């Protein structure tokens, strides 16, 4: 299979480079650091072993890229309005587009704009950052779950999972709705609260009031997920997420990095859309509605 | 009647000085600026007309003060543990103690510590600040509502109201529970949110997301008040509060000033106690619980 990466940043750059290193054909779309990577290649500094791709296939315009079997989308979701035009040149009839992005409603929206395209969700559990041109710093974790949204042939999804495993990436095929909601259980409290209180995950969990608040917000998401038909999730999942977060390296989630670097925050898909879904399902999330309001206010300042 | 003022700050200093100016006998307890006021008197810079008290009765130790008929308490509620010892020398059998403080549960707590003492709540609607020694700056408003909590003789409360009116202060006798809860409808959203988002009242109301959030928090307080037996309040009161706030001078509530000047915030009586009451009455306030958690976290930083 051939791969394209749209958005060669901390996420797309990491997973695409892992595939390319083990011999997969991967075509990278770059933006600001296109010329740098053309000259110097891609560097991955990784806790699992650093490596360098001296001559990756790189592009600064998706219309010059070849159609591929799989497209990995690593764009920030604030740019998803660009996806239909970016994806168009890359599509074959059976191309699978995997949105490795945070939030809920991403596939719903893109499917409406591109009805025939096979979509999947990529849930990345990774601490990585792109701090310099052409360089991905991978600090810890790295596994990816893939949930089939509208691909008529599950075998394609399974083949991607197999390719990731061959490339040394722990990957699994998972149920789409459950996977997106479970990720939201962590993302919704921690992304916003680290911005609202300008604190890392460990500080939020060290203070009893914010620890309780994080738990309470996680339970809001779990109740909403249940109301939206995700049955395989209950309150013990929140305890597990808190335990895991306490035992990982203190962490600034992507939304905090976006805020700190004055980039737009992914409020829409991380908050607004899930809040709408929860309300429609009769299980509103008042504390996460408050967090959304605080983030929208902070974004505007 | 003779008056004592415990806590001669922006509130106690203003109301005590107004009474003293029109000839009432008022004894002021001072702390940091005792020597300054002894030498220079009290200055009130007021939108209703500035004035100076050259030789007020001032003390730096309540045990040297005479027993009085009425004690106005203008302390920050974070210091209320000091009240039993501060009040003891000032009490006659019929002395009325008026807590001009924000929050809920203040009179309950003090009554438990001082069972026989007649208590009332003073609800001050005033923008004032004490920024220099011996000087109160009164920017706008100024009226005070007095709600009888445990004074067996309502005539004493009415006499205080009459004295305030004679002194040019708009005062009214009101029902205790309704008055405390109605004030909480404004205080709970605005005090905390101006701290959490480091913004004045006008900024919070200018952004649609925070305007909606303030309204939603006000409705939480109104539902809790109803659950606690305050019947004379409904959702229209929130609209009225928002309208009034929009039409007043942009304002930093006392909690924001406390936070900005690194003084302890009155989280206990403004949040923790009302949140407990609401929970016990079966009407929890999730967004205000979140706000309490954020404030406790910020206080600790």
Q: How would you characterize this protein structure?
A:
Two copies of one chain form a homodimer. Chain A folds into two domains: 2-174, Rossmann fold; 178-300, N-(1-d-carboxylethyl)-l-norvaline Dehydrogenase, domain 2 (Orthogonal Bundle), CATH 1.10.1040. The first copy, chain A, has twelve helices and ten strands. Chain A has helices at residues 12-21, 34-40, 83-87, 106-113, 154-166, 176-196, 201-206, 208-227, 235-246, 254-260, 267-280, 286-300, and strands at residues 2-6, 25-29, 42-46, 51-53, 57-59, 68-73, 91-99, 118-132, 135-148, 171-174. In chain A, strands 1, 2, 3, 4, 5, 6, 7, 8, 9 and 10 form a ten-stranded mixed β-sheet that branches. In chain A, strand 7, helix 4 (106-113) and strand 8 form a beta-alpha-beta unit. The mean pLDDT of chain A is 97. Chain A binds chain B through residues 196-197, 199, 204, 207, 209-210, 212-213, 216-217, 286-287, 289-294, 296-298, 300-301, and chain B through 196-197, 199, 204, 207, 209-210, 212-213, 216-217, 286-287, 289-294, 296-298, 300-301.
Which descriptors apply to this entry?
homodimer, 301 residues, alpha/beta, Rossmann fold, N-(1-d-carboxylethyl)-l-norvaline Dehydrogenase, domain 2, 12 helices, 10 strands
- Main β-sheet description of chain A: 10 strands, mixed
Oligomeric state of this protein: homodimer
CATH architecture of the largest domain in chain A: 3-Layer(aba) Sandwich
Mean pLDDT of chain A: 97
Q: Kindly give the count of domains of chain A.
A: 2
What's the total helix number of chain A?
A: 12
Specify Rg of chain A, calculated over alpha carbons: 19 Å
Question: Uncertain regions of chain A: pLDDT < 50 for 5+ in a row?
Answer: none
Distance linking N and C termini of chain A: 46 Å
Q: Identify the CATH class of the largest domain in chain A.
A: Alpha Beta
> What is the CATH topology descriptor of the largest domain in chain A?
Rossmann fold
CATH superfamily of the largest domain in chain A: NAD(P)-binding Rossmann-like Domain
Helical residue percent band of chain A: 40-55%
Derived from helix and strand composition plus strand pairing, the structural class of chain A reads alpha/beta
Give the total of beta strands of chain A: 10
What order do the helices and strands of chain A follow?
A: EHEHEEEEHEHEEHEHHHHHHH
Proportion of residues in β-strands of chain A? 15-25%
For the largest interface, the chains and their residue counts are: A-B, 24 and 24 residues
Shape of chain A: globular
């Amino acid at each position: 299979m051939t791969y394209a990466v749209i958005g060669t940043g901390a996420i797309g750059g990491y997973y695409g480079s892992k595939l390319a290193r083990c011999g997969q054909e991967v075509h990278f779309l770059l933006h600001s650091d296109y010329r740098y990577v053309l000259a110097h290649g891609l560097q991955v500094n990784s806790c699992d072993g650093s490596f360098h791709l001296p001559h990756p296939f790189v592009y600064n315009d998706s219309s010059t890229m070849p159609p591929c079997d799989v497209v990995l989308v690593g764009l920030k979701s604030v740019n998803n309005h660009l996806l239909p035009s970016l994806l168009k040149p890359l599509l074959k009839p059976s191309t699978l587009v995997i949105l490795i992005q945070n939030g809920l409603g991403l596939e719903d929206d893109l499917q409406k704009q591109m009805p025939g395209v096979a979509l999947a969700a990529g849930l990345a559990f990774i601490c990585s950052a792109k701090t310099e041109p052409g360089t991905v710093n991978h600090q810890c974790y790295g596994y990816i779950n893939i949930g089939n949204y509208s691909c008529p042939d599950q075998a394609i999804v399974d083949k991607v999972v197999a390719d990731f495993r061959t490339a040394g990436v722990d990957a699994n095929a998972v149920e789409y709705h459950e996977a997106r909601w479970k990720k939201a259980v962590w993302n919704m409290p921690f992304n916003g609260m680290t911005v609202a209180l300008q604190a890392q995950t460990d500080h939020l969990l060290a203070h009893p009031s914010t620890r309780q608040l994080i738990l309470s917000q996680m339970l809001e998401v779990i109740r909403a997920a249940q109301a939206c038909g995700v049955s395989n999730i209950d309150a013990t999942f929140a305890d597990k997420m808190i335990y895991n977060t306490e035992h990982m390296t203190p962490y600034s989630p992507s939304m905090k990095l976006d805020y700190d670097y004055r980039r737009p925050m992914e409020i829409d898909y991380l908050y607004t859309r899930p809040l709408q879904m929860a309300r429609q399902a009769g299980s509103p999330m008042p504390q996460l509605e408050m967090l959304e309001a605080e983030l929208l206010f902070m974004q505007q300042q």
